[in-house]
From TrEMBL:
Recorded family membership: Belongs to the TenA family.
Record's function text: Catalyzes an amino-pyrimidine hydrolysis reaction at the C5' of the pyrimidine moiety of thiamine compounds, a reaction that is part of a thiamine salvage pathway.
Record PANTHER family: BIFUNCTIONAL TH2 PROTEIN, SI:CH1073-67J19.1-RELATED
Protein name as catalogued: Aminopyrimidine aminohydrolase
Length: 223
């Protein structure tokens, strides 16, 4: 078993729980409430900017030129390509640029963005890459699972198709290969830190989707 496969297997129950979240169940059925999807899209667009920055920082830490290109390209994809998908949905759903700019990050989104940026800046390169992997891999596998049972005429089909696509899965395989190479050269303590970073990010993926379904927001005097 490769190191990346060991990460996946160690966190398989968490992935299954992510698949079973009401957000993803209803997304597959095409019955997800419009307000919930809009809430998710706004937060995910905010998240992608932070994710792009974390990818760019990680690119600068790379131990070889291939890694610089790999993660710099991924940063470009996150900010330019994936956000173009969001922008299309936002136009279709009447979310104006002003509304997007005025909507603050939710606690789950803020936590996830802060975690990835802090890890990218402060952790060793292999650990930073491991923290970035769940967003690639879990999205790809959720997209593939939903695509296999997506309802006919699903209004969210463009989202499903993006993350189920072979192009996206090829990127995931590339990141997994980098993780495997780094793990093979790492100490046991670094490999343990990579496991911990992957699990923390996978938990935050779960929290992000759960938060979107609940329309979670800051409460009380912190608003």
């Amino acid at each position: 078993m490769s190191f990346s496969q060991s990460l996946w297997q160690a966190n398989l129950p968490l992935f299954q729980s992510t698949l079973e979240l009401p957000f993803n169940q209803e997304l597959a059925a095409g019955s997800l409430n419009r307000e919930r999807f809009c809430h998710y899209m706004i937060q995910d667009a905010h998240y992608l900017v932070a994710y792009g920055r974390a990818l760019a920082v990680t690119a600068a830490k790379s131990d070889n030129a291939e890694g610089v290109v790999q993660f710099a390209n991924a940063a470009n994809e996150a900010v330019v390509v994936e956000r173009s998908l969001h922008d299309g949905f936002m136009r279709d759903y009447g979310i104006t640029p002003d509304r997007f700019a005025a909507t603050p990050l939710t606690p789950a989104c803020h936590h996830y963005c802060s975690y990835l940026l802090a890890t990218a800046w402060s952790a060793a390169y292999p650990v930073a890459v491991a923290a970035l992997l769940p967003c690639f891999w879990i999205y790809a596998e959720v997209g593939r699972a939903i695509h296999a049972r997506s309802a006919a005429g699903n209004p969210y089909q463009p989202w499903v198709d993006t993350y189920a696509s072979e192009e996206f899965h090829a990127v995931v395989r590339g990141v997994c290969a980098t993780v495997d190479r780094l793990a093979a050269e790492a100490t046991e303590s670094t490999r343990a830190a990579m496991h911990a970073a992957y699990r923390d990010a996978a938990r935050l993926e779960w929290m992000f989707w759960d938060s979107a379904y609940r329309l979670a927001d800051w409460q009380g005097p912190l608003r």
